[in-house]
Design a protein that fits this description.
The chain is α/β, with parallel strands linked by helices. It has one domain: Glutaredoxin, CATH 3.40.30.10. Helices cover about 45% and strands about 20% of the residues. It starts with a helix and ends in a 7-residue tail after the last helix.
């Protein structure tokens, strides 16, 4: 075997996508619909995190890529929450906690009643909404959240610290473990 052939083969191996890298790249949050989350929560109660987004929202796309695809964030969310993607302009009706919600047309763009209720009428995208294990609203958090800041928020909500201490106090003492 010639040295040239060996170097060429080695270069091809280094450039070829590794199955382990491909698997790690495809891992992310296991998103479900709000209906699926309700069904899952009846069987095994756990908190719900809802990403309220729109297709045209640039910050929503950035949060998808930078925050929700971060391996530490995705792993934590998958282990501690039911994760829901909810389009703020969804056209189909949704039944949530026994009540039906629909699309409201308004100008060029309308809105869906369920995200509007969860966001307390303040339609802002992206917004992450937290529900407790009984599907009751804890709090919506509007705006883009980078991985490090989102880690603080999801651990605060996911571990129930919101019940015992103000977020400012929690954030001051929090030691990042998911996002170095």
């Amino acid at each position: 075997m010639s040295l040239r052939f060996l170097l060429f083969s080695l270069a091809l191996l280094m450039l070829a996508p590794s199955p382990l890298l491909a698997q790690a790249h495809n891992e992310g949050i296991d998103w479900m619909s709000i209906e699926e989350a309700q069904k899952a929560a009846r069987k095994e109660p756990r908190p719900v995190v809802i990403d309220v987004y729109t297709d045209w929202c640039g910050w929503c796309k950035k949060m998808d890529a930078a925050t929700f695809q971060h391996p530490g964030i995705a792993r934590y969310v998958n282990e501690n929450f039911y994760a829901v993607k909810l389009d703020g302009e969804e056209r189909d009706s949704i039944t949530f906690r026994g009540q039906s919600y629909g699309y409201v047309p308004r100008g060029r763009r309308g809105y869906h009643e369920l995200p509007a209720q969860l966001l307390k009428g303040k339609l802002s995208y992206p917004t992450v909404v937290f529900l407790d294990a009984q599907l009751k609203l804890i709090q919506p958090i509007p705006g883009y959240q980078g991985p490090k800041n989102f880690e603080t928020i999801i651990t605060y909500m996911g571990e129930g610290h919101y019940k015992t201490q103000p977020f400012k106090q929690y954030r001051t003492n929090y030691d990042h473990r998911l996002v170095p």
